[in-house]
Amino acid sequence: MTTPTKRMDRSVQRTRQLLRQASIDVMKEKGFSATSIRDIAERANVNRGTFYAHFADKYDLLEALLREEVQHLILDGLPPLSRWDKDTLCLLIQTVLEGFEKLLHACYPSPVRDALLERVIQEELAALLLAWLKQARQGTTHRQVSLETTAQVASWAIFGAAVQWSRGTTTKTSEQTAQDVLLIITEGMAPGMLRAR
């Protein structure tokens, strides 16, 4: 027998999925700017109050959609038991390089969506890297740089490389670019590159 909580959870999930799909469909037709809450609610066959019970506004819904896409992109490109090591980190970088352009040209591009997508990618990368670093830290000694700072810097390095690579200004493959970024993240700037004043 299904408990009321499980039935309600499924009902909530089903409604959220209807709203997500309706928003995608409407945004494909009208674009993000022209899409209204009323359009989404009507397409999902729910009232506006139901929409607001699940999302604060269309920006909140868009962020949820983008987070799902980014999480799927990252998780689909990595082995199930991923952790902080060179091979997995290189695979993550390459996955982001190749997936960034696809996400950028998804079905509902707009300046608002693009800016939100960039923030979501960097945040999701930082969260994943921090989780890996915390897992790798177990049993190790004190570090000079916090794990949070390490995760933030690495996420921005990966994200920045993905933005640059997606512009097509380099002849390097995603594999070559991923190797370069990996080297910078894991070994830092080459000794002797910075001159003392």
From TrEMBL:
Domain spans labelled HTH tetR-type: 13-73
The keyword DNA-binding appears for this protein: yes
PROSITE patterns, alphabetized: HTH_TETR_1, HTH_TETR_2
DNA-binding region: 36-55
InterPro entries per record: DNA-bd_HTH_TetR-type_CS, Homeodomain-like_sf, HTH-type_Tx_Regulator, HTH_TetR
Coiled coil: none
Key words, A-Z: DNA-binding
Protein name as annotated: HTH tetR-type domain-containing protein
Species of the source: Ktedonobacter robiniae
